[in-house]
Specification:
mainly alpha
Length: about 80
Amino acid sequence: MRELDKDHKYKVHMPIFLDATCSGIQHKAALIKDFESGKSKIDPTKKSDTVGDIYSDLLEPINKAIKYMVKSMEIVMKLQK
């Protein structure tokens, strides 16, 4: 880190393991022993299974909730006028 601070082009030769598959959620699921949330389509059981992530699963319900809130706010704003 010291060499990298001195020279931003310094090549670091330490292996860095990257797991960008929602591992934070997996860790929390492990702590509370929630198997369903922990597996969250990260490890396909068959070759035909697609690997996904919890964020893809939550995208549609979150967008629906946001649209509902926006409509509710528009109604409240109209009633206040």
